[in-house]
Amino acid sequence: MPDHFQNIYETQAAQYDALVSREDYQRNILPALEEILPLSGLEVVEFGAGTGRLTRLLAPVVKSIRAYDASTHMLATAAESLGQMGLVNWTVTQADNRKIPADDASADLAISGWNFGHTVAWSPQTWKDDIGHMLDEMLRVVNPKGIMIILETLGTGSETPAPPTPGLAAYYNWLEETRNFALKWIRTDYQFASVGEGEQLTRFFFGDAMADRIAKEGLLTLPECTGIWWKKKG
C-alpha cells in the first residue's frame, strides 16, 4: 500500500505545490547554489523534480533544464507552471531516478531536491543500494567537470539542523562519510499568508502535531533547515 507521501505525490500535486511555494521566503536557496557553482549557462538534469519547485528556480538562470520524476501527476503541475513563465529551455519527462533517459556526460549539473531521502522509508532494507544507483546515474549524466547536488530537509520547525528521523540521519552520514559529499546548510523558512493557511497546508503534509503548533502559537513563519550536499565528479 502507498504510504502518506506516496499518496500525496500521486494525487495531491496542487496542494503540495501550494505548501512548498511558501518555503524559502528569504530566497536563500539560489544564492547558496551559486556559491557552489555559477549557474548561468549550465545544462542541468534534475532528478525527482516533483511539481517543479527547483525547476522554476533554475530555469530563468541556466541554459537548459531537463526535469524527471516518477509521478506524471506531479510533472503535470510542473509543466503548467513552467509554461506560465514563458520559458522554452525546459522539458519534463516521467522516469525512475535509477534509470534517467539522458545521455552520458550531457549535463554540467545533476541536482535533486527533497526526493532521494524518501527511499530510506520506502525501502528500509535496500536504501543504500537504491540511492547508490541514483547517485551512479547522477555520475553518468554529468560531464567530467560536472557537479552533483542533493537538497534534503534538516528539520521542519527547527531553527538549527536536526534530521527528522534516525533513518534520514543515517542517510546523511552515509552521503558524507561513504559517498564523500560536502555539506552546507541554510534556513529555508516557510511564510504563510495567515495562521489558517499555515495550519491547513502543514496538516495535510506534516500532520496534526505541526499544524496544531501553528494554530496554538499563531505562527505565520515556520522555521526550516535545509541541507545541501554536493560533490564534483572530477
Describe this protein with a few key phrases.
about 230 residues; alpha/beta; two-stranded antiparallel ribbon; 9 strands; globular
Compact description:
The chain has helices at 4-11, 13-20, 29-36, 53-58, 72-84, 118-122, 127-141, 166-177, 195-206, 208-217, and strands at 43-47, 64-69, 90-94, 107-113, 142-156, 182-187, 190-191, 221-222, 224-232. The protein is α/β, with parallel strands linked by helices and 234 residues long.
Structural features, described:
This protein has 234 residues and is α/β, with parallel strands linked by helices. It has ten helices and nine strands. It has helices at 4-11, 13-20, 29-36, 53-58, 72-84, 118-122, 127-141, 166-177, 195-206, 208-217; strands at 43-47, 64-69, 90-94, 107-113, 142-156, 182-187, 190-191, 221-222, 224-232. The strands form two sheets. A seven-stranded mixed β-sheet has the order 3-2-1-4-5-9-6, with helices on both faces. Helix 4 (53-58) links the parallel strand 1 and strand 2 (64-69). Helix 2 (13-20) crosses helix 9 and helix 9 runs antiparallel to helix 10. The radius of gyration is 17 Å and the shape is globular.
Specify the structural class. Answer: alpha/beta
Strand order of the largest sheet: 3-2-1-4-5-9-6
> What gross morphology would you assign?
globular
Largest sheet: 7 strands, mixed
The value of Rg in angstroms is 17 Å
Give the N-terminus to C-terminus distance in angstroms: 41 Å
Uncertain parts? none
Quaternary organisation of the protein chains: single chain
Number of helices: 10
Nearest-integer average pLDDT: 96
Number of strands: 9
H/E series: HHHEHEHEEHHEHEEHHEE
What fraction strand?
A: 15-25%
Helix content: 40-55%
